[in-house]
């Protein structure tokens, strides 16, 4: 059989994978229709877990799918202004300990369930298209006039592939004109999936945003397929080191090596590096030794409600003045 060369688009190699779900008779089901349903549930779980994964059907999958469907219905009918909140987590400069800014994080206070984890509702919002509406609301909140932002602080906002497909991101950037933020104070975080689909179109949108003065950061760096080629295609302002590497930095030499490589790459390209999910002093000291630029995580502060942002800013600036 002849070997097919790798598929390439715009010079970038495209990797095609597959996910598989399977069920057995009689453990999974007793008839064909039920068996197919069980295999489909296993396939759905495989797609949720990771790329190119295999999953057998398990009895609990059906119950989890029904629960997910119930959550989807509630999300579709959710009143954004009443149920959703914007929380912010501080980002700290590693060497000085000074406040660099905040990452804006969406939170859902469900009337029946209480606070719902973003890990549960964000994937559903992406699949249903609700995330575009939520994303526009986050932008509107981020650009409100009453944010207490000193000129040297940055607000970082996550943007999904769904929002790129809608094509209204540049309008979101232009909304800065009447806000309390200047363009250089807004940073948009994207993942590699934004560039995997419709890369030329999305690159053009990113360049438009950059022309406005908005900063662009590549999130979850190192977990996708083509990170290095993306750095060649677009001049990112920042790289965020994925939490999976930071979590293991104190006990896994391979994770430390990857973190060191990312920081070195960012330094040589003139790109800021931010380590996510810093939770221990061991992680802090390792990242400080590697000269990581910025840190974010529960070691410094959990995400806080919008009303608490001013007090955090005040506390950091008071500490900076005291040490000066």
From TrEMBL:
Gene3D superfamilies: 3.30.70.270, EAL domain (3.20.20.450). GO terms for molecular function: cyclic-guanylate-specific phosphodiesterase activity. Coiled coil: none annotated. Residues 68-317 form the EAL domain. Pfam families: EAL. PROSITE patterns: EAL (PS50883). The keyword Hydrolase applies. The keyword Hydrolase applies. InterPro entries: Biofilm_reg_signaling, EAL_dom, EAL_sf, Nucleotide_cyclase, Rev_trsase/Diguanyl_cyclase. Keywords: Hydrolase. Its EC number is 3.1.4.52. This is GGDEF domain-containing phosphodiesterase. It comes from Mesorhizobium montanum.
